[in-house]
Amino acid sequence: MNVADMVSTTRRSAGLFDMTHRGLLEVRGGDRVRWLDGMISRDVEALEKAESGAGCYAVLLTNRGAIVADLHVARLGDVFLLETLRSEVANVRRTLERFIIADDVELLDRSDDFVAIGLEGPGARELMGKLAGPEVTELDEEAWVETEIAGIEVLVAAFGYTGEVGFQIRMKPEGRRVVEEALVAAANPGEAVAGIGDSIVRADFEALEILRVEAGIPMLGRELDEQVLPPEAQLDRAISTDKGCYVGQEIVARLRARGQVNHLLVGFRLDSSELPAIDSRLSSGGRATGEFTSIALSPTEGPIALGYVRREHSEIGTRVEFEGGHATVVSLPFVSGGARQGLDDVGEDRARDPS
Asked: Which of 18, 166, 255, 256 is deepest in the core (most CB within 10 A)?
């Protein structure tokens, strides 16, 4: 199956993704709540007061307010889990460990203890309901739960990278085949584990990247790094405005009070027969303005990109130039997935944000 079919099947029904490029850091110890609350941008104390499995999306910042990493955070019993890009787990751990002085806190890299797969698409909730029941299908956004699929213990989190309803599933390596077979069988009764049907597709990383760009979701190492401030990436949902001090908070508060930043993350439609280099420099009206950070050839939207431009060039419809072509600033997302509607179906009045 080609990439275009992988993308369209995921948007129509469900895609199954290898997520081994995502990692997991565990935070434990008697001072974990107070300490972690002073490290990241969301309200950890609120997670501690909520039920086990409560989660949120947050960022770890430098003291200059720039992004070290974005994190999917969860409390499970007496530990906190920080999910991020696997290649950045060591850097996140080193950054955090610098702030452990006399605190009873221990950081453990759990990335190798589990394998991770993603199930995303409009049919993902129904499939998970068949296999794991309402405790998974009724999860709030960013919430986690320990459950079983086909007799295998799994850790399921309700978030994704395509803009569609998504679940991240972790299990011991020896259980992966059984879980994947169960997912494929639930979607396509009678199909073998390698089978591809109308209801689910095994999609590769290239397809996931196209889906991510279509959804306008920034990624660490592309749109997010230590040169980027959260407001530039438009990550309002990662920031709590009513919690105590944390690393980088003073800068974030100052930016909020000022009301603007110099650069903004935007989407682009490309007027070019060939995809440009990912770090192509952009200009507008003869003035340098920014660069592309992610580029994709979407089956439905054509050549599209994410990138940063100066604020004055961020209005929808602005034309920018790059070597070999032009692009137009457009609103994000390029494709509106069903994630928000799926959450609304669970109940608009349910608390999704413990902070």
From this structure: 166
Alpha helices in the chain (DSSP H): 3-12, 32-37, 44-49, 89-97, 124-132, 134-137, 176-187, 205-215, 249-258, 339-346
CA atoms of 107 and 95, how far apart (whole Å): 11
Geometric angle at alpha carbon 299, from 276 and 23, rounded to 5°: 75
Domain holding 21, by residue range, is 1-260
Rounded CA separation 172/267 (Å)? 38
pTM of the model: 0.92
Question: Which letter does DSSP use for residue 30 in this model?
Answer: T
Task: Write the single-letter amino acid at 330.
Answer: V
Across the range 121-132, mean pLDDT stands at 95
How many structural domains are present in the chain? Answer: 1
The verdict on residue 274 lying in a domain is no
Amino acid at the residue 10: T
In a domain, 76, yes or no: yes
Sheet of strand 201-203: strand arrangement: 144-149, 152-157, 166-171, 115-120, 15-18, 201-203
Q: What is the rounded average pLDDT of the residues 67-72?
A: 98
Beta-sheet strand order (sheet of 67-76): 55-61, 67-76, 79-85, 22-28, 106-109
Q: Burial of 72 by CB count in 10 Å (0-12 exposed, 13-18 middle, 19+ buried)?
A: buried
Residue 200 falls within a domain, yes or no?
yes
What CATH number does residue 187 fall under? 3.30.1360.120
Angle at 252 between CA 248 and CA 258, to 5 degrees: 150
pLDDT confidence bin for 296, thresholds 50/70/90: very high
Contact 309, 282 (CB under 8 A): yes
- 72 within domain boundaries: yes
Q: Where are the beta strands (DSSP E) in 37-134?
A: 55-61, 67-76, 79-85, 106-109, 115-120
